[in-house]
């Protein structure tokens, strides 16, 4: 997808996956059907230009130029980016907000909310009309998280659990992971949902789903879907198909990577 680009910070951040952009600023016509799948992350979104429409759970939302916080998703969204518009997103690791004691995302899921009506990020003014807006966002994100990581050297419980689930591509027993921590399962589950908006089971299933998406999208060995399912940790095809459909509203056999906004392969 030619309008898609990815940008990495100079240092490997514990809290930022990447900065990515959808750039339709040079075209007068809108681009429709930009499908974005759940991936277990939050995003700060900078919408520049005439705006965008988002279709989520059979409802259409319209967004004007501004800065937004995008919650965790539990199913795909369909984006229409207006002509002469650009969308820049800072993709945050799922545990970022767990480092803020007052954050509560229990009821914040499948939602896009205005984050800063005064165009500020990390307390700094942002000029969305700047010709160097992408470079400005990258530089600000780099500076903020370099300092943030110095102040939060020790990984907390939520980060450690997320990392274990991701390392296992979501193919793990939650009870087996939680036994390694000196807290009750109820306490951890509550803290996890407060920090991410998802239950541990939901998060694990999303990570497993995205693992299967990558296996299909970057299937260099031309493995069968049966093989892809087993590689992604599904014990049977029905489990694979049902989980895939839950998040994409399509079966694996009908999934075409070219119809989705997907990351470049690392």
TrEMBL record:
GO terms for molecular function: DNA-binding transcription factor activity; sequence-specific DNA binding. Keywords: Transcription, Transcription regulation. Gene3D superfamilies: Homeodomain-like (1.10.10.60). Transmembrane segments: none annotated. Residues 155-258 form the HTH araC/xylS-type domain. InterPro entries: DUF6597, Homeodomain-like_sf, HTH_AraC. This is Helix-turn-helix domain-containing protein. It comes from Zhouia amylolytica.
């Amino acid at each position: 997808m030619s309008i898609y680009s990815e940008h990495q910070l100079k240092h490997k951040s514990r809290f930022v996956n990447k900065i990515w952009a959808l750039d339709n600023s040079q075209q007068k016509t809108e681009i429709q059907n930009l499908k974005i799948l759940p991936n277990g992350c939050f995003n700060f979104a900078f919408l520049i230009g005439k705006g965008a429409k988002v279709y989520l759970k059979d409802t259409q939302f319209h967004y004007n130029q501004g800065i937004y916080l995008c919650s965790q998703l539990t199913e795909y969204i369909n984006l229409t980016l207006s002509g002469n518009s650009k969308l820049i997103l800072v993709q945050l690791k799922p545990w970022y907000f767990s480092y803020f004691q007052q954050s509560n995302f229990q009821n914040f899921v499948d939602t896009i909310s205005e984050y800063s009506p005064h165009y500020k990020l990390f307390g700094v003014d942002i000029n969305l009309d700047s010709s160097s807006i992408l470079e400005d966002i990258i530089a600000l994100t780099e500076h903020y998280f370099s300092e943030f990581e110095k102040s939060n050297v020790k990984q907390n419980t939520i980060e450690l659990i997320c990392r274990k689930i991701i390392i296992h591509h979501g193919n793990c027993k939650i009870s087996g992971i939680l036994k390694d921590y000196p807290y009750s399962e109820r306490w951890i589950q509550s803290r996890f949902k407060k920090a991410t908006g998802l239950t541990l089971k939901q998060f694990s299933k999303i990570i497993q789903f995205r693992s299967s998406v990558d296996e299909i999208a970057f299937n260099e060995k031309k493995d069968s879907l049966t093989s892809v399912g087993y590689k992604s940790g599904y014990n049977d095809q029905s489990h694979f198909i049902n989980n895939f459909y839950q998040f994409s509203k399509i079966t694996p056999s009908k999934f075409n990577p070219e119809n989705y906004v997907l990351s470049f392969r690392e």
